[in-house]
């Protein structure tokens, strides 16, 4: 159906290139235009209400109408709407936020660098590590390991770390051929051998990682390992028991850094303040964004330990400057909103709230969907989860992609008032605002159940 001329939809089709959208098909389908939000709900330009099962893009942790964040931004806008942090300039919001992050870090961190997005933060972390190793006389120690199905963003270095085909195909990624190495995905349901326990699977993955490190030149050439505690865009993949302990033991052996990408998991999502704490990770570098400001304004952060900082300090003293930074690094208004967000997390004991409501969501997901005829696996921890659709539960077989089972479920979800997102293998993710209540989780899953039943009928 052609949208009326001058409608939002028509003007969008005429002018916008959308991220993560089939640009050609979009010319026919058009957008869903959202105009406002309240709590865990959003409303489109026709006034229809939806529960945002993914908080936008794993983002609006405090819901869509937090007045305190609005006030924090307004006050800072009036006081100092912009200043930068190049050439030793500073301002209080950035100083306060850096201090708060260091205090809350899951391992001992030394300094914080600010960016605007998760991608920028991952690119920055990688540049820091390369810079450090050059400065410390280890110019060959540059190879970085990430996992197949990882998502670390889309700027060229971050996209190279990412392990998803759509982020590589036609983009000439990974760049710097040979420096980006992808190892096995820690997803027991699909990747474990028949009868292999979670622990044995974890041991095998750690052994495979070690073999790859040795093949790639060992400690002399291998610099770091990147990981999301729970892999998000790859389908909400929760690691098997003992996985990160075993991986960290390997990294120690080869003098490699652990970079925790906490862009989704940070700030309570998994039921601990950091995903690193849920999975016993002691990161050397930590990347966060999204829930840092409840995503009301763009801001990301990279925390580095003393070793990385010393490398950067050494290098910048030789070059004369640490030649890296964004115009908006530590932007005062974004920093003010992030400070207020962290204060709200503390005051409302958000981690305890997630532990309680998350346990409810996990139990309900399993109770309602584990035995559903078109659901293969239900997984998750805290307030992050997924149901993976399956054409044949026993064989763990996905639906033929031509059937578009995931996108069709999203469409049915929209009709029933819930925004869903389909990922690899028709995995449907859940990552609602952290402030969601148990009653709202039930309401959200009622709408999902209705949509899933309708899809099962359609696919029969
Ligand atoms: N890292 C993780 C784990 C993410 O989930 C994302 C985005 O979803 C990114 C990095 C990239 O963040 P951005 O889209 O802000 O660049």
Description:
The chain is of the alpha/beta class and 460 residues long. It contains 16 helices and 15 strands. It has helices at 8-15, 23-29, 55-59, 67-79, 92-104, 118-135, 156-161, 188-191, 198-215, 243-253, 275-278, 306-319, 332-347, 350-369, 405-415, 438-459; strands spanning 34-38, 41-44, 49-52, 111-115, 143-147, 180-183, 222-227, 257-261, 285-288, 300-304, 375-381, 384-389, 418-419, 421-423, 427-430. A 7-stranded mixed sheet has the order 4-10-9-8-7-5-6, sandwiched between helices. Strands 1-2-3-13 form a 4-stranded mixed sheet. Strands 11-12-15-14 form a 4-stranded antiparallel sheet, with helices on one face. Strand 14 (421-423) and strand 15 (427-430) form a beta hairpin. Helix 4 (67-79) packs antiparallel against helix 13. It is globular. The protein starts with 7 loop residues before the first helix and ends with a helix. The mean pLDDT is 97. The structure holds pyridoxal-5'-phosphate. Residues 57, 117-119, 122, 151-153, 228, 232-233, 261, 263-264, 289 line the site of pyridoxal-5'-phosphate. This is Aspartate aminotransferase family protein. Its cofactor is pyridoxal 5'-phosphate. One of its GO terms (molecular function) is transaminase activity. Belongs to the class-III pyridoxal-phosphate-dependent aminotransferase family. InterPro entries: Aminotrans_3, Aminotrans_3_PPA_site, PyrdxlP-dep_Trfase, PyrdxlP-dep_Trfase_major, PyrdxlP-dep_Trfase_small.
